[in-house]
Write a structure and sequence with these properties.
The protein has helices spanning 2-18, 25-31, 33-49, 53-67, 187-218, 222-233, and strands at 70-71, 76-77, 82-83, 90-91, 96-97, 102-103, 108-110, 122-123, 128-129, 134-136, 140-141, 146-147, 152-153, 161-164, 169-174, 181-183. The N and C termini lie far apart (117 Å). By secondary structure, the protein is of the alpha/beta class. The protein is elongated, with a radius of gyration of 30 Å. It has 6 helices and 16 strands.
Length: 234
């Protein structure tokens, strides 16, 4: 019982620590759907472990209707989970979340297989997943990793790395010892920068051609030049 209360208290503190809009513990308890969804999942998960899958799914369904957050009763979730806003978050059956994980609205921890096996992501301690990111399959997101908003991740993510894009790829690694960040080569960004430079070069050449053509159009024609000579001679 005391362990449960400590875990719930940690969920409250997670919201207070990671959401600057949170003003008090009572505000979190009464008005945070992510907190509500987590507590509903505690009950549904307990019923699931007791071999009562139907009541567990009913409780989970009611929690989804109340919060807009869908968490399968079988999902394993550590302490300190913070779901910010939360609308549209989906956590699949075989998903596993470590401690102090943060999810933003629209995040999907989904599966690709129809087999009854591990088919949803595993998020280690301290992972942060941005809004509307999609993590698909039995992948592992390493400790302290960050997934950018809107990313689609289908491969494992190294610890303390930052992943962005579709499909997601690591663009930086943060060293936990001193907090320094090392930028990794980003082939897509380099390709886009190269294309932008090429477009700018072509625009400059096109502007030069247009200037030369304008100068040619401004030159007098042969007939007008001859007419000017005859007029001057008379």
């Amino acid at each position: 019982m005391f362990k449960l209360l400590r875990s719930i208290r940690r969920d409250i503190h997670a919201a207070l620590e990671r959401d600057p809009a949170a003003r008090s513990a009572w505000e979190v308890v009464l008005a945070y759907p992510g907190f509500h969804a987590r507590q509903v999942h505690r009950l549904a998960h307990t019923l699931h472990n007791w071999g009562l899958p139907v009541p567990a799914r009913v409780i989970s369904h009611l929690g989804r209707a109340l919060t807009g957050i869908e968490i399968h009763p079988a999902a394993r979730i550590g302490d300190g989970l913070f779901i910010d806003h939360g609308m549209g978050v989906v956590i699949g059956e075989t998903a596993e979340l470590g401690d102090d994980v943060t999810l933003y609205q629209g995040v999907t921890l989904g599966g690709t297989s129809r087999r009854r096996e591990k088919r949803h992501p595993t998020l280690r301690d301290g992972v942060v997943v941005g809004a509307h990111a999609q993590l698909i399959g039995a992948i592992e997101v390493g400790e302290g990793a960050q997934v950018g908003a809107g990313s689609v991740v289908i491969t494992n993510v190294p610890a303390y790395s930052t992943v962005v894009g579709v499909p997601g790829h690591a663009v930086a690694v943060r060293y936990p010892e001193d907090g320094t960040i090392a930028r990794l080569p980003d082939p897509e960004a380099e390709l886009i920068e190269g294309l932008q430079a090429r477009v700018q070069e072509l625009e400059a050449r096109l502007a030069l051609v247009e200037q030369r053509l304008a100068g040619v159009r401004d030159l007098p024609s042969l007939e007008s030049a001859q007419r000017a000579v005859r007029t001057a001679g008379s």
